[in-house]
Amino acid sequence: MNPILRSVARHPAQAAFLVPRTGTQSIRRNATVASQTKPTGPLAGVKILDLSRVLAGPFCTQILADYGADVIKVENPNGGDDTRLWRESGEDQIWKANEAGTKTSLYFNTINRNKRSIALDLKSEAGQMVVLELARGVDVVVENFIPGKLDKLGLGYETLKAVNPRVVLASISGYGASGPYAHRAGYDVIGAAEGGLLHITGEADGRPTKPGVGLMDMCTGLYLHGAIVSALLSREQTGQGQKLDTSLFETTISILSNVGMAWLNLGREAQRWGTAHPAIVPYEAFKTQDSYFVVGAVNDRQFGKLCKLLGVGELSGDERFITNNARVHNRGVLKGIIEGVMKTRTTEEWEGAFEGSGMPYGPINTLEKVFGHPQAVARGMVETVESGAAVNGEVKVLGIPVKFSGTKPSIREGPPSLGQHTEEVLRKLGLSTDVISRLRKDKVI
Length: 445
Known about the structure:
- The chain has 19 helices and eleven strands.
- It has 445 residues and is α/β, with parallel strands linked by helices.
- The strands form three sheets. A six-stranded parallel sheet has the order 3-2-1-4-5-6, sandwiched between helices. Strands 7-8-9 form a three-stranded antiparallel sheet, with helices on one face. A two-stranded antiparallel sheet has the order 10-11.
- The longest helix has 24 residues, at 215-238.
């Protein structure tokens, strides 16, 4: 007998509300209750059960939440998402301690806004039954367990589909659900290494360099959020959900772009170029008197304009640099000439010289300059939300990068505390105070 049903048989009073229903009730959509703050955006009304943790999955579900989806985040009662504890030096001073004496983190706050949190032990039969009951009324379930783990918990796709044929199960793993590496653990830097990104990132004569953020995790979340929306559109035509399966490894391969294509079609092994480009010269960061200035000339016309701005107009007619092919062949000589000129002025002075030229250019900004940038301010890339976990009652968050003219997304509330909405969600499922107390006593919630 299925362990879920076996638990129901042993504890009929406690679990009667979780007995699989028959008829149209089993495929009703959007049955969970919306957040207290009414979501707005193109996905308002979509219900998501988020079983993921760390970065790729939570980043995906936060995008969907920003777009209006009602996201219920399921966390382990013993500590919750690991990222709640990933604090940088000096961070403790901005957070309050909760009842357990622990504090939240900026990392967790980065990727979990606009969500509700329930604390639930997925290893317990009662916890699994709660998940199945929640799955009846949601549109999407997102998870990033090692492939096969969800099935061992009695919560695999076939089980979810049995209680809700319209559900979309979106799975993230290190290497994908099939193949010889399927059961290997996967992390951002491992995906970047195995998928070749670290091979092509860094200075030409230096060691491989990891991007400054978890790029492969976030790219995977970006891919998956689009796939989820596509699956929901498909469901409108077919009436059926489906399983989506992606991985950090496959994401990394897919973004190798022209570098990957050069290997596939020319057998050309890639190399590291620092900030330079393998096929366009000049196109990189040049040292100035006080920092770095990035400029690119993607055609001969732009190169001529660049030479004039630098005060070396004669270079555009030099045989060594007259075409892009020639410049690629003589990149070392050209870089030395350009950087020699660049070092005679400060970055700010070069910005003034390039202003209004129509050329692509820009400084390598510190974060202080990024968040004080007039364009970042004009485009609303910093917002402030209330936070009970913060000492000053609020936390600044990164803005939404895509603007909608009609169904506008919104940042409605900060990340939840661990299990903040457990009782609210369980009561909406029909659990009594006695049953909730029993689950809490048994450490299910």
